[in-house]
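Pilot study result, target chain (544 residues):
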Amino acid sequence: MLVRMTQRELDQSRRCSRKSNGRHTAHCRSPQVSTDRPTIATTTSPSNIYINLFPVKNNTALRFSACWTEQPSSCLKEQGYEVITFLANIGQDEDFEAARKKAESLGAKKVFIEDLRAEFVEDFIWPAVQANAVYEDRYLLGTAVARPCIARRQVEIARSEGAQFVSHGATGKGNDQIRFELTCYALYPEVKIIAPWRIPEFYTRFRGRTDLMEYAQKHGIPVPVTPRAPWSMDANLMHISYESGILENPKSHAPGDLYLMTKNPEDSPSVPDVLELEFRNGVPVKVTNVKEGKSKDSPLDIFSYLNEIGGKHGVGRIDIVENRFIGMKSRGIYETPGGTILLQAHLDMETFTMDKEVRRIKQGLGIKFSELVYNGFWYSPECDFVRFCIAKSQEKVEGKVQLSVFKGQVYILGRESPKSLYNEELVSMDVQGDYNPCDASGFIRINAVRLREHHRLQGFSSSDQFHIEVLWYGVGLTVESTGTGDPLPGLMGNEGSSDPFSPARAPRPPLNYTAGVSVFACQPGESAVTIAQHESLRRHRTEP
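Predicted structure:
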């Protein structure tokens, strides 16, 4: 959104900027929504500064969140601001011409609609595939990887328009505000951010869905939220996410009609689709439907086709509670059909071609990458480093994987690669090859050294040890053998002696005596003298 400011407001904005070290804060009055702000109609006055508000989730196909980001735009427009809007096509089901007309009808001076689908796949989804990126073991990061893609283009437009301010429609409780703003600051450090959902004048004016829906109805903003579908959606090429509304109760089951990208697995076809995925440098370069003979070889076409097949068979549904970066837990339901197929295929090819220890290190990098992306640090030095290392690990990840997609599942059928580390002759039980089975004995013994040492420290240094229970009576030491094997000598201190650890040999105690409060180890044949001097016994000595 392009906002014009008077000289008085500009001076106030500069004072706020100095106080906040060059970054806009919620305490700065200039970008807030007010009811008495003066406006300037001209576009050439040197006393004006441009503020771009780019609603980055204004997808009219979305049932909830898309509409609400039109409210900040419309509210600022009604205060006399000029608006430039930016709508990214990242694969959502959208009538873009209708969206353009809607933005213009709301008063946008300029409307940018950008097709980012190809770069979304190549620059963001493919690195996530290479990393096997999964946050907290389940979430494939469909929303998180889209945000830096959108924000990168947002910054490019802002720079080209000479904007010093950008904005977004993300709420004050979610992760997206962090992702958008960290990307903007990383790529455009001097930029100021307007976040309406963190400005009291805005969020106190719209306290809930009812207020927003009334405003939308008054201003002709389409709001496809109904009592039958009261939840928030965010869609892109990689996935659809659902949250809020009735889904905020983690116990409630998701309605069957919630899912838009995948079929119910029970209703999916009774015949599987068999696909062959070809990888090079860890990214897919071709997908072929083996039965139909249909192939796709461009990144966008490959991913779109995998979405189609996965969606048809109900692949990629998850219902999870996750930990937001901001500190709270949230419930999310996700459909990621194409991404789920790629994850399984890539994992298989990676294991087939990658050195064991390299893959072990790379697994840790993948976890770190997932956390960085989820938390909004795509454009950070640490994420650059992690992506570089992951890309290096993928140089030999090349080959073909055949898999079956059926009833909500992905089944690996086979694989081949010119760079495979799999040696069929070496691993065969029928061919000895150059492997000597006798070498395994030394290998096992060497690996057992630390286990033996561990057990030695625990007091279990041989298989014929005896465990004896020790009871302190004040005048005598009674022990009982609880082990097996050679009989343990009877042990007891001198009767009447004040020192139960007396080195004198004592008569054998009754073996059926079971009382005891401490345990130590004794080798068969040890005398009372050695036991009395046994350090573990002294350590376990207890008072009556």
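One observation from the pilot: The chain has three domains: 7-116+138-225, 240-354+396-420, 423-544. A full batch analysis is planned for the follow-on phase.
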